[in-house]
Design a protein that fits this description.
The complex is a heterodimer of chains A (416) and B (96). By secondary structure, chain A is α/β, with parallel strands linked by helices. Chain A has two domains: 221 residues, FAD/NAD(P)-binding domain; 148 residues, D-Amino Acid Oxidase, Chain A, domain 2, CATH 3.30.9. In chain A, helix 2 packs parallel to helix 7, helix 2 packs across helix 10 and helix 3 packs across helix 10. Chain B has 96 residues and is of the alpha+beta class. Chain B has one domain: 2-Layer Sandwich (Folate-binding fold). Chain B has a four-stranded antiparallel beta sheet. A two-stranded antiparallel sheet of chain B has the order 1-2. In chain B, a hairpin with a 5-residue loop joins strand 5 and strand 6. At the A-B interface, helix 8 and helix 11 of A face helix 1 of B.
C-alpha cells in the first residue's frame, strides 16, 4: 500500500492523467482462511484491520453480500459521541472515540473527523436534572461533560426557536465537546484500504448462504461464490445477524427495525454543533457540504427492509421544525432508512455464540457508526484470543441469563 | 402509513397500535424448575423471521391484545386474530 501524502497529491494533481491506484483489490476468494468475517461494513472492516494490526492474523477474508460500506455504515448520520450513563458503556464508546481521534493518521486516510461537540438541549427543570445526572456520570466515568445554561445553549445555536409560544423552550443543556461527526464512507474506505494493505481479502458481492459444520465445530461457510473454509468466523452483519445465527439453530435477543434519516438542500454554515432535543427526540447537524442532516427515533413496526414509513417521518420532521422553525423553508433532498438490530437493553452483543468458533458483534441498534473502531478492536481481540477483552466482557450474551443488563435506553435517556 | 385491523374496532391507523412481541412463545412452568437460560429465552429471544410472521400487538385506544399476521419484508398485512380464536385454533395457526 502506497501512502498518501502531500507530495503524491501534488505530483498526481499536476499529471494530465493521474495514476491513482484503487484503494483496495477486488479479491477472489481462496479456498481457506484463518478467519472469515461476514459483513463488510465498518465493524467488519475494522475487525479485519485490527486482527492484522494488533494480532498479526493476516490470512483473513471479509465476505460482503453487496459492495462494502453500503449498509448501515453508509446510511447513518455520522455522529460520534461517548455521553453514556453506565461505566461499561462509557468504557466501550470512549475507547471508540479515542480511536477515532487518531484514525485519519493511523489509516493514512482522511476520515474528516470534526470534533464540533455534541449538545443535548433540555426544556424543563426536570430534564435539566436528568442532564445534571448524566453530566455527573460522565465526569465520574472520566469523560468530558459540561452543563450549559440556557444562555450558553442559545449562544451556540442562535437559530433555536425563541418564539413566546414555542413548545420546547430552551432551559439549558449538556455538552460533550469531544463529540462530533466524521465522513462515514471514508471510515469504511479507510479501514478497507488499510486492511487490504495487510493482505486481507475483501470479497464483495459474496452472500453467505449457510455454514459448514463438522462435529459441532464451524469449518467454514457456503457462499454464492462457493465454499470457503475457516475455523473461526466473526459475524458483523447488523440486522442480518439473527438470520445468519438462526442457521446455526440459535435465536438472539434482537428485533430489526427501520431507522430513517433525512437531508435537506445545502445552505450556508448555520449550525456548528450536533444538537439533540430531549423533548422532540430529533437530532440535527450540518454536513460539510452544508446540508442539514437529521433523524430521530425508530420506526414503530419491526421490519427487515431498508424503507421507512410516514408516521416516523412526521414525528422527526415536525420535531426539527419545532426546534428550528427557519429550516421549514428548506427542501428535503433525500430520505432513506437502514435496518438496525435492536436489543432490549439498547446495548450491543459482543461475544461467542453456542457454536464453537463463531463470534458475533451486533445489536448496536441506532448507534453503530460511532462504535466502529471499538467494535472492530474488541471482536478482533475475541477472535484472536478466544477470550473477552475486559471492555467487551459485560456485553456478552450471557448477560440475559444473569440479568445484568446494561440498560442505556433508560440510563442516558437518549433516543436509541 | 399502514392500516391494521383491531378485532373489536376494525381497521385503524398504525399509530394507534403498539408492538409487543412475537407470538407463539410458551411461558415455561413451573417457575421453580425453570432455568435462567430458559427464562431468558422466553423473555428476550426472538426468531425475527424474514417473511410471514405472527406477532402480539395491542390496540391502544381500546386496550385489546391480538395476533397480527403480517410480512416483515413486504409489509403486507394478512389478518388479525383475536387471542381467544388463536387459543382455540392453536397448533394449526402457529405454524401457518
Amino acid at each position: 500500500m502506497k501512502n498518501y501524502h502531500i507530495g503524491s497529491l501534488i505530483t498526481q494533481g499536476l499529471k494530465k492523467k493521474p495514476s491513482w491506484k484503487p484503494a483496495w483489490r477486488k479479491a477472489k476468494p481462496k479456498p481457506a482462511y484463518d478467519v472469515i468475517i461476514i459483513g463488510g461494513g465498518g465493524h467488519g472492516l475494522a475487525t479485519a484491520y485490527y486482527l492484522a494490526k494488533n494480532h498479526g492474523i493476516k490470512n483473513v477474508a471479509i465476505l460482503e453480500k453487496g459492495p462494502i460500506g453500503l449498509g448501515n455504515t453508509g446510511r447513518n448520520t455520522t455522529t460520534i459521541r461517548s455521553n453514556y450513563f453506565y461505566p461499561e458503556s462509557v468504557a466501550l464508546y470512549d475507547l471508540s472515540l479515542r480511536l477515532y481521534e487518531n484514525l485519519s493518521k493511523e489509516l493514512n486516510f482522511n476520515i474528516m473527523f470534526s470534533q464540533r461537540g455534541m449538545m443535548m438541549v433540555a426544556h424543563t427543570p426536570t430534564q435539566m436534572e436528568i442532564c445534571n445526572r448524566i453530566a455527573n456520570a460522565m465526569v465520574i466515568n472520566g469523560v468530558d461533560g459540561e452543563l450549559l445554561s440556557a444562555r450558553q445553549v442559545m449562544d451556540k445555536i442562535p437559530l433555536w426557536n425563541k418564539k413566546k409560544d414555542a413548545r420546547y423552550k430552551c432551559h439549558g443543556g449538556i455538552m460533550q465537546n469531544r463529540g462530533g461527526v466524521a465522513r462515514h464512507d471514508a471510515v469504511a474506505w479507510g479501514y478497507a484500504r488499510a486492511a487490504d494493505g495487510f493482505g486481507v481479502d475483501i470479497i464483495e458481492n459474496c452472500m453467505v448462504e449457510d455454514f459448514l459444520l463438522e462435529a459441532g465445530q464451524v469449518k467454514g461457510v457456503i457462499t454464492s461464490k462457493g465454499e470457503i473454509r475457516a475455523d473461526r468466523i466473526g459475524i458483523t452483519a447488523a440486522g442480518g445477524t439473527p438470520y445468519l445465527v438462526a442457521k446455526l439453530g440459535q435465536n438472539l435477543p434482537i428485533l430489526d427495525y427501520a431507522l430513517q434519516a433525512f437531508v435537506t438542500e445545502p445552505i450556508k454554515p448555520c449550525l456548528d454543533v450536533v444538537v439533540l432535543s430531549l423533548g422532540t427526540g430529533t437530532y440535527v447537524l450540518q454536513s460539510d457540504k452544508g446540508e442539514i442532516v437529521f433523524g430521530g427515533g425508530l420506526d414503530r413496526i419491526p421490519t427487515h427492509t431498508q424503507r421507512g414509513n410516514l408516521p416516523a417521518q412526521e414525528t422527526v420532521v415536525s420535531g426539527l421544525l419545532e426546534m428550528f422553525p427557519s429550516f421549514g423553508q428548506l427542501k428535503l433532498l433525500r430520505q432513506w432508512a437502514g435496518v438496525v438490530d435492536v436489543v432490549p437493553d439498547s446495548s450491543p452483543l459482543i461475544g461467542p455464540i453456542d457454536t464453537p468458533g463463531v463470534y458475533i458483534n451486533c445489536g448496536w441498534g441506532t448507534g453503530g457508526f460511532k462504535a466502529i473502531p471499538a467494535g472492530g478492536w474488541l471482536l478482533a481481540h475475541l477472535i484472536a484470543k478466544d477470550e473477552h477483552h475486559f471492555i467487551s466482557e459485560p456485553f456478552d450474551l450471557n448477560r440475559f441469563n444473569t440479568g445484568r443488563l446494561i440498560d442505556e435506553a433508560t440510563g442516558s435517556g437518549i433516543a436509541h | 402509513m399502514q392500516i391494521f385491523e383491531c378485532p373489536i374496532c376494525g381497521k385503524r391507523n398504525e399509530t394507534e397500535f403498539h408492538f409487543l412481541t412475537e407470538a407463539g412463545k410458551e411461558r415455561p412452568e413451573p417457575a421453580e424448575e425453570v432455568s435462567d437460560s430458559r427464562w431468558a429465552e422466553y423473555l428476550y429471544l426472538h426468531k425475527s423471521p424474514r417473511g410471514k410472521t405472527n406477532e402480539i400487538w395491542v390496540h391502544i385506544p381500546c386496550g385489546e391484545f391480538f395476533i397480527l399476521q403480517r410480512d416483515t419484508v413486504t409489509r403486507e398485512v394478512y389478518r388479525s386474530i383475536s387471542l381467544q380464536d388463536y387459543r382455540t385454533k392453536k397448533g394449526s395457526n402457529q405454524t401457518e
